[in-house]
Design a protein that fits this description.
By secondary structure, this protein is of the alpha/beta class. The chain has one domain (about 5-244): Uracil-DNA Glycosylase, subunit E, CATH 3.40.470. The protein has ten helices and six strands, in the order ααββαααβαβααββαα. The protein has a six-stranded mixed beta sheet with strand order 1-3-2-4-6-5, with helices on both faces. A hairpin with a 2-residue loop joins strand 5 and strand 6. Helix 1 (about 5-20) runs parallel beside helix 6 (about 155-170). The protein is globular and about 45 Å long. The protein starts with a helix and ends with a helix. The structure holds iron/sulfur cluster. Iron/sulfur cluster binds next to helix 6.
Length: about 240
């Protein structure tokens, strides 16, 4: 095994241990029968509950989740960031948007979706379906630190940050999640997604309805009538579900 491989395995092991600790597991039994199937997976709940909020003992508030995240160095994205971009909006929102990661403006300000794509998202929320961004929604990303050059976050970075997104969603317990783009949708659904085919079709994340749609940055890059109509249709479905 090369030094690079060793260091990558150690980093993954460290992240997995941190994640177990996040779930309240302080000890790991040391015997030969321990294998990967005994470890929690992305789709398993911290406790065996059917509803994310049914066990108050393991649900943190957003403030507690933020405190636990601290000055995080759980993955390499900490190296180039200016600010952690935790999320913003109403902690009791019925509608949560999940994007992939902060860009330059977000990194600068420590707030999600404040650049051009953010302005587009605000327009989609406020002009498109008549909601108020800060009062009616909560917005966050699958990774809280800016990937260099705005590349997509990599699997180990997503794995390191995912427990905090999971806890954010548990704390908020929204009625609807709108996943913005392919990386966010794949992370929430835990599988590969063809976003152009699957946007607009209801999915589920731990009992919460998920509406996948295009990322506003993609919409700005491919500003066609067809794409704009598609996002508007997706948002109308999300609104109808909220009003049900
Ligand atoms: S992306 Fe998430 S896990 Fe990685 S350093 Fe930032 S806050 Fe920590």
């Amino acid at each position: 095994m090369t030094e690079n491989q060793k260091s990558s395995h150690l980093r993954q092991l460290k992240n997995q241990l941190i994640r177990l600790q996040d779930y309240g597991i302080d000890e790991i039994p040391c015997n030969n029968s321990l294998n990967s199937s005994s470890l929690p997976t992305r789709s398993s709940s911290p406790e065996k509950t059917t509803s994310p909020n049914s066990n108050k003992a393991v649900i943190q508030t957003l403030a507690q989740v933020r405190e636990e995240l601290g000055d995080c160095d759980r993955c390499r994205l900490c190296e180039g960031r200016k600010n952690i971009v935790f999320g913003s909006g109403n902690p009791e929102a019925q509608l949560v948007f999940v994007g992939e990661g902060p860009g330059a403006d977000e990194d600068e300000q420590g707030l999600p979706f404040v650049g051009k794509a953010g302005k587009k998202l605000t327009e989609i929320i406020e002009k498109g379906i008549g909601l108020n961004r800060s009062e009616d929604t909560y917005i966050c990303n699958i990774v809280k630190c800016r990937p260099p050059g705005n590349r997509n976050p990599e699997a180990d970075e997503i794995n390191a940050c995912l427990p905090f997104l999971e806890k954010q969603l548990q704390a908020i317990n929204p009625k609807v999640i709108v996943s913005l783009g392919k990386p966010a949708t794949e992370t929430l659904l835990g599988r590969k997604v063809a976003i152009t085919k699957e946007r607009g079709q209801w999915q589920e994340y731990r009992g919460i309805k998920v509406m996948p749609t295009f990322h506003p940055a993609y919409l700005l890059r491919s500003y066609t009538l067809e794409n704009r109509k598609a996002v508007h249709e997706d948002m109308k479905k999300a609104l109808a579900e909220l009003n049900r």
